[in-house]
Every structure is written in C-alpha cells, then in structure tokens.
Write a structure and sequence with these properties.
- With 130 residues, this protein is mainly beta.
- Helices cover 5% and strands 48% of the residues.
- Strands 2, 4, 5, 6, 9, 10 and 11 form a 7-stranded mixed sheet that branches.
- The longest helix has 7 residues.
- It starts with a strand and ends with a strand.
Length: 130
C-alpha cells in the first residue's frame, strides 16, 4: 500500500524558514515522482516542487531560489526546505506520489500536473505571518 504522511508544518514569521517532511511507503519499488503541492485559502492546489526516482526535479516559478526539495532514501522521506517565507506561502502543503515511466519523469517533475499524481497525504499546514 502507498502511504504518505506529511509533518513539519507550523507558524513562522516572514523571512523565516521551515522544513517539511513526507514519509513515503510503498513507492520505492517502482519508478516514481514525489512532489509537494500546496493549496492556499480560496485557491486551487498547485505544484511546488517535485523529485523523481531518477533525480529529475522541478520547481514552480514562485519558489525557485527559496525552496529546495530533497530526499533521504534510507528513511523513505521527502523533504521541502522552505526559506525566505512570505505570507503568500501560507497554505496547506500536501505530499503526492506519481508512478510514471522513466522517460516521462522530467516532464512530470517540471509540469507537476495534479492529474499525474495518484496518491496523497493528509497535508500539513504552514502559516507565515508576523
């Protein structure tokens, strides 16, 4: 079974940093991409950063240079290091998994289409305010 569990959310001041974690089980045996999505109040869920099992990665323009996605294969954990946070980063952050063919990983990571990601965690909330 695929199971994704996010943690690390909380409240932080503008300019601060936060590190989110996603424990992922049932994904390592297959080629896959893991990604962070977020959904702010009154907004649609959108991709933030993605990392695939072949190393392909992608970031949304709004977080490039501020966020970094990484993983610890030994612990089956995906991370999102968030720096220089702004109130616009306030959202529920979700971890998603997509099982894809290796040759499509670059595309999946860069596009971060909701329809490509079939499994989701429950989310962890991030609030950025002074």
């Amino acid at each position: 079974l695929v199971q994704l569990t996010e943690s690390g959310g909380g409240s932080v001041q503008p300019g601060g940093s936060l590190r989110l974690s996603c424990t992922a089980s049932g994904v390592s045996a297959s080629t896959h991409c893991l990604a962070w999505f977020r959904q702010g109040p009154g907004r649609e869920r959108v991709g933030v950063a993605a990392l695939c099992s072949d190393g392909n990665s992608g970031y949304s323009d709004s977080v490039k240079g501020r966020f970094a996605i990484s993983k610890d294969n030994a612990e089956n954990t995906l991370y999102l290091q968030m720096n220089s946070l702004t109130p616009e980063d306030t959202a529920m952050y979700y971890c998603g998994a997509a099982f894809v063919r290796r040759e499509t990983m670059g595309w999946v990571a860069r596009q971060m289409r909701l329809r490509d990601f079939n499994y989701w965690g429950q989310g962890t909330h991030v609030t950025v305010s002074s």
